[in-house]
Amino acid sequence: MRMTETFVPTLRSTPAEAEIISHQLLLRAGYIRKGAAGVYTYLPFAHRVLRKIQDIIRDEMNKAGGLEVLLPIMQPAELWLETGRWHVYGDEMFRLKDRHNRDFCLGPTHEEIITDLIRGEVSSYRQLPLRLYQIQNKYRDERRPRFGLMRGREFIMKDLYSFDKDEEGLAVSYKKMYDAYINIFTRFGLEFRPVEADSGAIGGDASHEFMVLAENGEASIVYCNDCEYAANIEIAPCGIGDSDNIIPEDNKEMEKVHTPNIKTIEQLTGFMNIDSKKCIKTLFYQADEQVIAVLIRGDRNINEIKVQKVHPCYNLQFASEEKVEEITGCKIGFVGPVGLKNIPVYADLEIKGLVNAICGANEVPYHLNNVNSERDFRVNGYFDFRFAEPGEPCPKCGSHLEITRGIEVGQVFKLGTKYSTALNATYLDENGKENLIVMGCYGIGVTRTMAAAVEQNYDDDGIIWPMSIAPYHVVIIPISTKDKDHMEISEKLYKELTQQGIEVVLDDRNERPGVKFKDADLIGFPIRLTIGKKSVNEGLIEYKLRTEDSSKEIPLSIIAETVINYLRS
Ligand code: ATP
Ligand code: MG
What we know:
Layout: H1 21-28, E1 32-36, E2 39-42, H2 44-63, E3 67-68, E4 74-76, H3 77-83, H4 85-88, E5 94-97, E6 103-106, H5 111-121, E7 130-139, E8 154-164, H6 167-187, E9 192-196, E10 206-213, E11 219-224, E12 230-232, E13 255-258, H7 265-272, E14 280-287, E15 290-297, H8 304-310, E16 316-318, H9 321-328, E17 345-348, H10 349-352, E18 357-360, E19 366-371, E20 381-383, E21 401-416, H11 418-423, E22 426-428, E23 434-436, E24 438-445, H12 446-456, E25 458-459, E26 462-463, E27 474-478, H13 484-499, E28 504-506, H14 513-523, E29 527-531, H15 533-538, E30 540-545, E31 551-555, H16 559-568
Parallel strand pairs: 3-7, 15-17, 17-20, 27-28, 27-29
Antiparallel strand pairs: 1-2, 4-6, 5-6, 7-8, 8-24, 9-10, 10-21, 11-12, 11-21, 13-19, 14-15, 14-16, 18-19, 21-24, 22-23, 25-26, 29-30, 30-31
The structure holds adenosine-5'-triphosphate and magnesium ion.
């Protein structure tokens, strides 16, 4: 490809709208442009990167017994009503009506439509297992579309669905997909980690996420250095932390303390000269129609996913100030569990062990000191509601946990019979008995992977593509396009490398070399070959890898060989 014939509109400055590096660089380096919030155009170089990502995925899916199909993006509401997800998906679903006023959605995922297909086509055990996949646009009206390709509202996903006779069959499919994912992310050249995950709205009972490790990742990963344990912080179980630090003491008598203008835990700990570990935070949530209270230690952060597991609901958000006042008769900064009536009160496991704690008195401006659970307030149960913290014991081996950040690029789920039950997808076994089909689903964010690759591979000058997904392998830069000799050598090399199957861009623009070098670094070509005076006089080509600071001079005669050897390594 010649630079003058392609379309890579690079920008000199960073667009203000882009907050994170992958978004900034993909815009600046001429890969993407915004169509609307969370909706992007993929320009020619991005298209090549995405195609390479897809080709690797296809190859591994096919090897694992996957069959590629293309399912409808536009899906009828009836199927979603059958599984109950027409309502569960809420505002995240893009909905539309046809001319007859019938409801449709743009597929955020494809369990419904594919299970409908299978219930119509599969009737015998002889037709199973079946593993069908597609690579296609998905539509989710995300609450906060942001970070460019990272969280789009229209994005490309690979999704595979497995259909097996029984749990053993599903275990085989799951393992095949898990292994295929390891191969895929290894072939992308990314540093990643599979972690135990929550199965969320999709449902099911086992799940792993594949995380690309990166500072800007939205996900927190809890992992152990001494064993294999790694989990999304959303589900990492927490016990009672730092119990060794708690000094045993007798239950004292509860007392009311005058605490004017004290509303936050920090103000309270300062005012009373106590540790925030001694405080009980009382949080009020609106869980669909019901208000619930959750108690957690003052120094901890609440994990709402865990709350939703204990108190299942579609929508969990902080209750309004008015609601809290209605229930407690008091302003938010002074609320507490003592005397709470008529609503479920759940407490974190650590609350149980707190002796002589401090909490709001449900009266302005007072707090209560020497509060003890059981004696002074009632709870509906003690559960694990908090986020793990670094240094806590590993739930598998007891060693210390660490926390790092990652970008979720893929997820695999064991669905079991959730969708086959809802949609009545069954088969007849060897004995003519009817059984439910056992399912799994397996997604990879194709466009998010592109962003994650940049997030993990860049420097001050631009993108550093891993070779397997770079848009091109090599850029050839003639120092002067006006110099006949420079151009002759460049053209010859361009032809030779291209013939050898190497993907080359010839930067034949009539620009200063500095401009071309800057663009080459920004775009992220893995190999740069520069043709100048020395090439003409001594037959030497400047050979520079994007990953290295210094360059080498290599004789023209062995350039192709050098490039090919590097590509192979
Ligand atoms: P998240 O928790 O980040 O919202 P998810 O768990 O809802 O994602 P899945 O339903 O598991 O996503 O989808 C499979 C893959 O699709 C994800 O692992 C991710 O790589 C990608 N993906 C999901 N949502 C988006 C999005 N809004 N933009 C780009 N890629 C996405
Ligand atoms: Mg997911």
